[in-house]
Amino acid sequence: MKKARRRKASSIPIKRRKRRTVSKSKNRSAKPDKPQAAIIPYQDGYQIGHQEGYSKGYEDGSKQAEGEKTDHSHGWELAEKAGYEKGLKIGRYEGGDAIIDEQLPETHVLPDTSVAQVIASGIAALGERVVHLLTAEQVAGKLLEALEQRKPLSVVRLGDGELLTLAQESVLPTEQIRQEGGFLEYAGVKVPDIAARDRLLAAVKRADIVGIPKLRQPNYQRLATAVFQSYGIDFRSKVLTDSLVNYRLFQDGHLSRLMKGRRVLVVGNLAQPLAKVLAESGVVVAGAVEQVQGIHDVDRVMGEIRGQNFDLALVSAGIAAVILADAIAAEMGKAALDFGHMANSIIKGEAPIQA
Length: 355
Known about the structure:
Blueprint: H1 2-10, H2 13-30, H3 42-103, H4 115-125, H5 136-149, E1 153-157, H6 160-166, H7 174-180, H8 184-187, H9 194-206, E2 209-212, H10 221-230, E3 240-242, H11 245-251, H12 254-259, E4 263-268, H13 271-280, E5 284-289, H14 298-305, E6 312-316, H15 320-332, E7 335-338, H16 342-347
Helix pairs in contact: 5-11, 9-15, 14-15
C-alpha cells in the first residue's frame, strides 16, 4: 500500500509541471536573446490571471445585477401606472357618471350629455348660491385705499395647514389630522393644540379679507366649507378672495405698485434675505423681524413689530402669519398681507420686483 501511494504521488501532474517549469527557466536563462526580466514565474502568472478573472467576473456580475434591477424597476413602474390608470378610471366614474346614474329614474338615460354639461347646468341653476371672491385687482385696490388713508386692513389666507389646525376636535379627529398634516409642526403647530386652534379662529373671524382655496379638494375648499359651517362663519357675510392672492398680486403687477414709495416691514424666518432682495430692487425696507417660532411665539414677535415704523407689513410665518397679520391691522392700525411662500419666490429670483 505504501509503494502504491508512492507511485501515485510520483505521477501527480503538479509535480511534473514544476519540473518542466524549472527546466525551461534554466534553458531560457542560457539564451542570450531572452533576458531574465522577461520571465514570468508561475506564482506571478497565477496572481495576474486570478485578478483578471475576478475583475471580469465581478464586472459581468454587476452588469447582470444592474440589468435585473432595471427590469424589476421597469416592471414596478408599469404596474404602478396600470394601477393608477385603473383607479383614475374608477374614480372618474364614481365621482361623475355614477352620481348621474343614481339621480336618473330607472327608465331614463342621458346618452348625449357629458358629466361636464350636467355640472354646468347644475351650477347655472344654483347661481344664487355662488359665492364671489375678490379678484387680485380688487384686493390691491382695497390695500391701496388703506395705505393712502392710513387705515387698518388685514389680508389673510387659509391653506391646508390653517384649515387642518382649525378642524381639530370640530371637523376631523386628531389622529386623522396627524396623518394628513405631517407638515403642521414645520408650519408652527404641534397637534393637538386647541389653544392654537382657538387663537387662529379668532384671527380668521376678525380679519378684513380672508383667502380660501378655490379647488374643491378634501383638505382645501371642502374642508374650508366644513370648518366655516362648524364655527358658524357665513361665507356670504365674509369678504373672501382666493388663497393664492399673494401670487396673483405679483403676477398681475400689483405688488410693486403697493410697495412703491412706502415703508415695508418684512416678518418671518426669511425676513433678512427678503429684505436684502427688496432693498436691492428699490423697495424702502423699514425693518426685518425674523425667527417666528410658531403660533405660541406671536406675542414676542408682536412686541418687536410694535417698535417698527412702517406702512405695509409682508408676513411670511406659516400658520402664525394669519394671527400676526390680523394683529398688525387690529392693534397697530396698519395694512398687513399674509405673504406666504411669495417670499421664497422673490429670494430665489423667480419673481423679480421693480419698485
